[in-house]
Write a structure and sequence with these properties.
Mean pLDDT: 93
CATH superfamily of the largest domain: Dihydrodipicolinate Reductase, domain 2
CATH architecture of the largest domain: 2-Layer Sandwich
Strand content: 15-25%
CATH topology of the largest domain: Dihydrodipicolinate Reductase, domain 2
CATH class of the largest domain: Alpha Beta
Number of strands: 13
Number of domains: 2
Helix content: 25-40%
Low-confidence stretches: none
Bound molecules: NADP nicotinamide-adenine-dinucleotide phosphate
Structural class: alpha/beta
Strand order of the largest sheet: 8-9-7-10-13-12-11
């Protein structure tokens, strides 16, 4: 029996990881290595296709050292029940329809299905969707936005999940409870966020060179960064009204981690930080992948490294009625692969946190 055939005969849910050699793919494989019910049974890629896993990733041992394969839908369907697509934007929209036709259930970590239509995605990402000729609007409408704390039941039944971006995950998590309850003004929201260089993926980019990124902090994508519309879309859904916000990301000299600071104006300026913490607590008490910190404790990215936990806290400037929300995640785990596994867990009928690391480490 070949290594691929051996991988495909496992019990429990069989998972294909396409984009296995990239950061999201690697983290997904690592997280699923210790998983009680889900097993990686297919590794897909383009440049790495045909290569033994050990030649790509010697530090992450896989049994029988499988060969990475090209992302052929028929071959994937023979080997797997679920597919995690961890690909550059614009590829999932080509591959996902083929996979869905073959009865596979798909979690896409890219942005292709996060919008109502591929035309909208194409506009935001200023990228041609080569699959725009397909009748995609139904597919996009059927895709569930994969924020498990907010769309858990829909994710459980979904055939196609569009996992949120890392900035939207960190920013929406503390913001949504206040929008849902109508406690803040829906205009004038400002999000100031910082991320490490792994946010750019494993493919080499000049701005991510150590010489460029170290000992420096710089904003990018100021006004109209593509995550702005993604955050607004989900914020509007929860608020039930139009939400316009300002989002500015910054690249900071660290490898992983994402911190989002959100400024919003309270409708009732009499609310205190304790009141607002109660609002967060009430929403997240039963969600093991989110921790609400006590008033005066502010989240640090270091506390979230390698965990699928989001740390959130809130402070209020009672002089101005300004609320400051803070949220830290590991961009590669709760912001990407871990969230993808959280969605897979729900799709497989498991508690969302199954097999995921939730302990915070320090330092
Ligand atoms: N990094 C983050 O913090 C983060 C967070 C949230 C979401 N995301 C999103 O997640 C997705 C993956 O990001 P990443 O950071 O993991 O990217 P990455 O490190 O650059 O990896 C991309 C992967 O895609 C594969 N690939 C490229 N073209 C392919 C093709 N035509 N067919 C099959 N495989 C192909 C590459 O494999 P080969 O080398 O074999 O070609 C590589 O394994 C992106 O859409 C990104 O926006 C990233």
């Amino acid at each position: 029996m070949s290594a691929v055939e051996a991988m495909a005969t496992v019990k429990g849910g069989r998972v294909a990881v396409i984009g296995a050699s990239g950061y999201g793919g690697l983290q997904t494989i690592r997280l699923l290595q210790g998983h009680p019910s889900l097993t990686v049974t297919f590794l897909g890629g383009e440049r790495s296709a045909g290569k033994r896993w050990s030649s790509i990733c010697s530090f992450l041992h896989l049994p029988d050292d499988p060969v990475v394969q090209s992302a052929d839908a028929d071959h994937i369907a023979e080997a797997a029940d679920y597919v995690v697509l961890s690909l550059p934007n614009g590829l999932a929209c080509q591959l996902a329809p083929e996979l869905l036709q073959r009865g596979l259930r798909v979690v896409d970590l890219s942005a292709d299905f996060r919008y109502r239509s591929l035309a909208q995605w194409s506009q935001v990402y200023i990228q041609e969707a080569s699959c725009l000729s397909r009748d995609d609007s139904e597919l996009c409408r059927s895709a569930v936005y994969g924020l498990p704390e907010w769309h858990g039941p829909a994710i459980s039944d979904a055939r196609l999940v569009a996992a949120p971006g890392c900035f939207p995950t960190a920013s929406l998590m503390p913001l949504l409870p206040f929008l849902k309850q109508g406690l803040i003004e829906t205009d004038g929201i400002i999000i100031d966020a910082k991320t490490g260089t792994s946010g750019g993926g494993r493919v080499p980019k000049e701005a991510m060179l150590l010489a460029e990124a170290s000992e420096s902090i710089a904003p990018y994508g100021v006004i109209g960064h593509r995550h702005t519309s993604e955050i607004e879309q989900m914020a509007q859904e929860v608020a039930g009204q139009d939400v316009r916000l300002q989002f500015t990301p910054h690249l900071v000299p660290m490898v992983r981690g994402l911190l989002s600071t959100v400024y919003a104006r309270l409708r009732d300026p009499g609310l205190t930080a304790e009141d607002c913490t109660t609002v967060l607590d009430a929403v997240y008490r039963h969600h093991p992948c989110v921790s609400v910190l006590p008033v005066g404790t502010y989240p640090a990215t270091k506390w979230t490294r390698h965990t699928n936990r989001a740390l959130v806290s809130v402070q209020v400037d009672t002089r101005t009625g300004q609320m400051i929300l803070m949220s830290a995640i590991d961009n590669l785990i709760k912001g990407q692969a871990g969230q993808g596994v959280q969605c897979l867990n729900l799709m497989h009928g498991l508690p969302p946190e199954t097999g995921l690391p939730l302990h915070c480490f320090y330092p």
